[in-house]
Amino acid sequence: MTLLNIFSTIITQAEVSTWGYLGAGIGAGLAAIGAGIGIGQIGGSALESMARQPEISGDLRSNMIVAAALVEGAAFFAIVVCLLIILLK
Amino acid sequence: MHTAKNIHFIFYKILVLLAVIVIKTSIFAQTEHRDDHQLNHGNESSLENYGDSALGKSHDSKAEKFDAGKMIIEHVSNSHSWHLWGHSELALPIIIYNKTASRWDIFSSTKFNHGHDTYLGYSLSHGIISHDKQEKIFDLSLTKNGAAAILASIALVIIMLLVARNYKKRGTASPKGIASFVEPLILFLKDEVIKPSIGKGYEKFVPYLLTLFFFIFINNLFGLIPIFPGGANVTGNIAITGVLALITFIITTLNGSKDYWKHIFLPPGVPKFLWILLIPIEIIGVLTKPIVLMIRLFANITAGHIIILGFFSLIFIFSEMSKGLGLGVSVLSVAFTTFMSMLELLVAFLQAYVFTLLSSLYIGSARETHSHEEQAQH
């Protein structure tokens, strides 16, 4: 069977829920990547600033944690959508 | 006087706590979880085995295959009985107001036998109680999350009253005992979070915001305890976090200054033909803030619980293949779970802190008056 045949068989005969699970898995992974990139940038710039001016590192630490929690909030939106896909199928 | 002010705070805190509990007990019985879908679609045999009632019925235990997904969803969602240990449970009361028949029906949840039996015309399916003759009912049952929230609130009130009594007895001397643990938290929140965010007149909001923080913190902590007073995922229930976000939203709206409303409905500094685009965006912005608060707390706590439960399920999954493998995996699992629990302790505090911080920021920005902005526009 050609590749095209195989592919069309999968698309036409797989159940909708199979693709749903695939989408949920990929979505969750992308959410983790997004959170990782965002929080990594926050941490990186916070560390850089602490290196330039160590005396305000306490201030920087609290603001960094707050910003990280907010970015995680956005990532959790994606997780909740993926959970809804799996639980409501 | 210092002690009188503390009693004042405590009084307000108790009032707000009671209001929150009353609102919540009525809300989360209505929003039974759809997660219970998994519970009832699983093997029927394991449903019958799970949970002898506290009244002591015994089933012969057939060998049941371990279903990790079902176990995790069960632990993370709400239910009408509180699983204690092994096969015994604490059956919680079902409280229904039957509007059509104008009567209250209160009975133990054992009558439903986990959804297998009907009682007085009521049946329980997928966590939702319905009447077979389609009578209009208001489900006000005390569910596991409700009972856990009440227990945690009682613990919180006891702790705070002990702290207040400590101050009363010792006057201006430094606190000893539980007050010395709670005081740095309260002072940190008041001076570093509430006062800078709200500015002048912040004292009005300190009782609510402190209650918010301690309620979320203590419920997060209780959720991490695996056994009786703690086995419930309270702050991971979206109805509870929804009510907390709603109360914050109401307080923000009630304290909005004229400038706050002007920024939403008559945005300054923008040509008037753009208003038709900008005003809906502003309104959506006002509504999404509490929604994001709600989802952030719910998702963080639920995800943490699912991770820990997943690690524990690994042990059972592997031990079904071979006992030795199960023992080996259990060492790894316990190590990972300990690490994740440390992380969850941090998350418990952090999520309570972030919720309180954002609530105080929203309240502060709603109360702001920009007297200098009008001058700059001239």
Give the tags:
heterodimer, A: mainly alpha, F1FO ATP Synthase, 0% strand, B: 378 residues, 2 domains, three-stranded antiparallel β-sheet, 8 strands
Describe the protein's architecture and organization.
The complex is a heterodimer of chains A (89) and B (378). With 89 residues, chain A is an all-alpha fold. The mean pLDDT of chain A is 85. Chain A has three helices and no strands. Chain A has a domain at 39-89: F1F0 ATP synthase subunit C (F1FO ATP Synthase, Up-down Bundle), CATH 1.20.20. Chain B has 378 residues and is mainly α. Chain B has twelve helices and eight strands. A three-stranded antiparallel sheet of chain B has the order 4-3-8, with no helix packed on it. Chain B has a three-stranded antiparallel sheet with strand order 5-6-7, with no helix packed on it. Chain B has a two-stranded antiparallel sheet with strand order 1-2. The radius of gyration of chain B is 24 Å and the shape is globular. The relative contact order of chain B is 0.11. The chains are: A mainly alpha (89), B mainly alpha (378).
User: Roughly how many Å apart are the termini of chain B?
Assistant: 47 Å
Which residues of chain B form runs of ≥5 with pLDDT under 50?
A: 25-62
- Average residue pLDDT of chain A: 85
Strand tally of chain A is 0
Largest interface, and how many residues on either side? A-B, 13 and 17 residues
Helical/strand content category of chain A? mainly alpha
Order of helices and strands of chain A: HHH
Number of helices of chain A: 3
Average residue-wise pLDDT of chain B: 80
The CATH topology annotation of the domain at 39-89 in chain A reads as F1FO ATP Synthase
Strand-helix topology:
The complex is a heterodimer of chains A (about 90) and B (about 375).
Chain A: H1 3-13, H2 16-52, H3 57-88
Helix pairs in contact in A: 2-3
Chain B: H1 2-27, H2 36-41, H3 44-49, H4 68-76, E1 81-85, E2 88-91, E3 93-98, E4 103-108, E5 118-119, E6 122-125, E7 128-131, E8 137-139, H5 144-170, H6 178-198, H7 206-224, H8 238-254, H9 258-265, H10 275-321, H11 323-367, H12 371-376
Antiparallel strand pairs in B: 1-2, 3-4, 3-8, 5-6, 6-7
